[in-house]
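Issue 218. Parser rejects a valid record. Input:
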Amino acid sequence: MASRRPSLVDEVRDDILGLMSAGTLKVGDQLPNEQEMCERWNVSRATIREAYRSLIAAGFLHAKRGSGTFVLRSPNQRSLDTSLSYMAMIADAGHTPGIRLIRREERAATTGEAERLKLPHDSRLLVVDRIHTADDHPVIFSRDRLPSELVSPTAFADMTGSLFSMMETVGYEPRSARARLTPVRTDEVLSQLLAVPEGAPLLHIDEIDYDTDGRAVLYSEEWHVGDVFPLWLNRRVTLHNDPY
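Output the parser choked on:
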């Protein structure tokens, strides 16, 4: 299946992120006005506005009424409200990233897994257990579950790379996610996998990723050791008619 062609909004958004990553646009800088941006990319104002809205929602830009749009955060500052490349996060923190494949198997989905992915109960999954490392030290244990019907033997041959990149090659690009974060204690199994004492604190992230059509395409669980890199969470304030 062919990959989805990026839209004009995607292209403008990615170009702006590229300027921010390269340092051409720095935190606090004001972006050019809409007319200049339209001429630069040869697109409509609606396209520019949608790209801006996407970047504002992701916490990269901030719009000040009557003043303009400003850079709020660099893409090099990784955030929990964006899809994460843990290898990039580890590298940004000054460490050498790596991935160890622990297990890969195709099996029947459990009742809970089928419900989370909104699949028939007789569905099959590709289940992948991996450890992300920083300078060869374990920092994240992940368990990823993909519907078998999405898996291409060629695209998914090497499980030491980005799952998102593999999914893009078969046309199922994750575009949004819903995650639950829970502090947990290390049990005996996680202690051995992550080389930390039993009872040590970990951050557990339970996440469902959705494609552009809103279809659940990936169910992930991750257990994070918390002393290698920070995870940022951007929060937006919604004002209500509240006297307090």
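Fixed in the parser; the record now loads. Residues 181 and 205 are 5 Å apart (CA to CA).
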